[in-house]
Design goal:
Helices cover about 0% and strands about 45% of the residues. Strands 5, 6, 7, 8, 9 and 12 form a 6-stranded antiparallel beta sheet that branches. The chain has a 4-stranded antiparallel beta sheet with strand order 1-2-3-4, with no helix packed on it. A hairpin with a 2-residue loop joins strand 1 and strand 2.
Length: about 140
């Protein structure tokens, strides 16, 4: 699939996946957040950018999406939002999923469940280079 309109930009690889939100790369690992369930986050090995390879996928239930992702130093944060936002499912609990991705092929020890979650009332302040969070988290 040729890219149009980008001077000095050359496509070196391709990975077919569901529509994405944010994409973050930490070292040789890419994290793709998705817009619609059941896709939540796809984790790729991009050590050879010409041949990206799926390491794992974290799914989310119907009625939720997880289109934002941040990852660094073996920790991944993803949002948990109702989809559609104005009609959350009964019992829906949003917030932030916090995953151990020190082994990106087996997030959170292989269960795919977050290492812990933060409530929807999580307070976050973002600066241009860092995100700082204040939350009370419970282990799951």
């Amino acid at each position: 699939m040729p890219m149009n309109g980008g001077q000095g930009i050359k496509q070196v690889g391709y990975f077919d996946c569901a529509g994405g939100g944010q994409v973050v790369v930490d070292g040789t690992v890419a994290f793709i957040a998705h817009m619609h369930a059941p896709e939540g986050t796809t984790i790729l090995d991009v050590s050879d950018p010409s041949k990206p390879r799926r390491l794992s996928t974290i799914e989310v239930p119907k009625g939720m999406h997880s289109h934002k992702v941040r990852a660094a130093h073996g920790v991944m944060l993803v949002n948990r939002e109702a989809q559609p936002a104005d009609r959350p499912a009964p019992g829906f609990q949003g917030g932030i999923g916090i995953f151990d991705v020190s082994d990106p092929g087996s997030p959170s020890g292989g269960a795919g469940a977050p290492a812990c979650t933060a409530s929807p009332s999580t307070a976050a302040t973002r600066t241009s280079r860092r995100s700082w969070m204040a939350m009370s988290a419970t282990s799951s």
